[in-house]
Amino acid sequence: MRAAAELIAVRLAFVVGAAVALLWAPHRPAFGHLFLGVFAQWDAGWFLRVAQHGYDIPQTAAFFPLYPLCVRALAFVLRSHLAAGFAISLASAAAAAWLLYRLSRSRDAALLLALYPIGYVFTSVYSDGLFLLLALAAFEAAVRGRSLAAGVLGGLAVATRLIGLALLPALIVLLWRRGRLGLAPLLLLPAALGSYMVYLHEHFGDAFAFAHAENGYWLRHTPALGPLAGLWDAVHSGEQGLAQLVLHLPTSGRYGKPEQFAIWNLTNLALLVAAVWLTWVAWRRLGAAYGLYSAATLVIALSSPAAVVPLTSLPRFLLADFPLFVVLAPYRRVLVPVFAAVGAVAAVAFSRGVWVA
Fold it and tell me: By C-alpha distance, which of 31, 73, 59, 23 is closest to 218?
């Protein structure tokens, strides 16, 4: 349980630090709560809306149902949806760190997870902590040959985030030797998505409302060539971003919006290249199942590029890619101070409503 305790301590330290920064240079915290609301920015408001009012408008369909349902249930006890979301995210992330240690036998991997610069979502009303817990639990169940548990947990992961489908090829590899009966429970993963689509069809008259919401409101599209088109968009935007920065150096001492987009595109492209390399390393060092999960995570992320910044939110998508933390563990001495420093800047910026991720 030491890994879980370390994650809780690290993430609460970031909450306190960001709260102090808000007091030092006054800025109104989200939802008027300095501690619980310090990271309740951006998508947190949408998750709270779904938890409180259900899927009242088509835009909310982009947020899968399991996490807001859990928030709604716990809010009956805590009498606060904000507190419920905070508690579920942090407890789930702590349990995920413990499971990551059990799978990898590496405390360094769990520590890197705790310090990951986008880890502020573990103390916000975001579904990342719950998803990571369910993904790791499904993976561990499959490693132990418990096919039914792997299928149920994998289905719950898909009900939390669409990227849960990345578990399917890895679970098939892990359970292949158990034959058809062992693989049958894995049908629960696509069934979870199908159930949500049936609900959306009945509720909005649109089974693909989750994809249409991403397209219409967050400017994400699903190109005909899928991840290949997303990869091209990422590389092309990165090349254009480099040209933008080189050819249009700031004259006033600061960059404008086009240059900010250029920096994001270059940074995300660098992260994608690193993630592809680490996926290959994970495949070789940890096995095909781990490599397939990492690869499928990247494929899904590339399958719905956004306008202007195609790889937007890639740093947060990589938070779900737990094999990467395992293969990065040997570089702990270098990465711990880097993660901590970048994470501190990202946490303060995010607490002030700056889009980071």
Answer: 59
Q: Are residues 204 and 282 in the same domain?
A: no
**C-alpha span between 91 and 180 (Å, rounded):** 35
89-98 pLDDT, tens per residue?
A: 999 999 999 9
pTM: 0.94
Residue type, 69: L
* Tally of CA atoms within 13 A in the half-sphere of 282 that contains its CB: 26
> Among all chains, which residue has been given the structure tokens 């062992």?
182
pLDDT tens track for 199-251 = 999 999 999 999 999 887 877 777 666 677 766 767 767 777 777 666 666 65
When the pLDDT of each residue in the chain is averaged and rounded to a whole number, the result is 90
Q: What is the pLDDT of residue 30?
A: 63
Give CB contacts under 8 A, 24+ apart, made by 83-87.
83/36, 84/51, 85/40, 85/44, 85/47, 85/48, 85/51, 85/124, 85/125, 86/36, 86/40, 86/123, 86/124, 86/125
Q: Evaluate whether residue 297 is within a structural domain.
A: yes
Helix (H, G, I), strand (E, B) or coil at 165: helix
**18 plus 156 within the same structural domain:** yes
Whether residue 178 is found in the same domain as residue 299: no
Do 253 and 144 lie in a common domain? no
> Residue 356: inside a domain, yes or no?
no
Report d(CA 228, CA 238) in Å as an integer: 15
Total domains in the chain come to 2
Evaluate whether residue 357 is within a structural domain. no
Range of the domain at 59: 2-222+322-351
Angle at 325 (CA atoms; ends 319, 329), nearest 5 degrees: 155
The one-character DSSP state at 254 is S
Sort 252 into a burial class: Cβ within 10 Å, 0-12 / 13-18 / 19+. Answer: exposed
